[in-house]
Amino acid sequence: MFTFDHAYDCNSCQEDIYDECAQPLVQNVMEGYNGTIFAYGQTGTGKTHTMTGVVSVGHQDQIGIVPRAFKQIFSEIENESSDCKYLLRASYLEIYNEEIRDLLSKDPKKKL
Questions:
Q1: Cα–Cα dist 25/42, whole Å
Q2: Which of 12, 67, 78, 93 is the one with CA 20 to 30 A from 110?
Q3: C-alpha–C-alpha distance, residues 93 and 39, integer Å
Q4: Rounded CA separation 44/98 (Å)
């Protein structure tokens, strides 16, 4: 038996998934909490598409979780009226066949 917070079908759009799953977590991060967004599943099931989406002119509706999160974070920082200082750290890792890779590395093929 499994319990799910959300389940999405092929008619789901990137914006709905972000708004329901990631936006509240990113908001909590902006309030000082740690947050993790974790995509898990078999190869070819759409994890990369959900996380990164299509980032190109004319495809704003296809932007994934990562670019939407960055947009939300930097928008909140720009709109902040206090003298707060921010330190932003992000990790983007892939675990595949028992190997870990840092996808933000200058050499993403390098194994950790």
A1: 24
A2: 67
A3: 10
A4: 17
111 neighbors 100 (Cβ within 8 angstroms): yes
List the domain boundaries for the chain. Answer: 14-85
pLDDT at 74: 93
Q: Among 35, 5, 30, which Cα is nearest to 17's?
A: 5
**pLDDT single digits (tens) 55-72:** 777 888 899 999 999 999
Instruction: Report helix, strand or coil for 7.
Output: coil
Start-to-end CA distance of the chain, whole Å, equals 35
pLDDT in tens, 24-40: 999 999 888 998 888 88
Q: Which two tokens stand for residue 28?
A: 């909590």
Measured CA to CA, the distance from residue 35 to residue 81 in angstroms comes to: 24
Owner of token pair 């989406």? 53
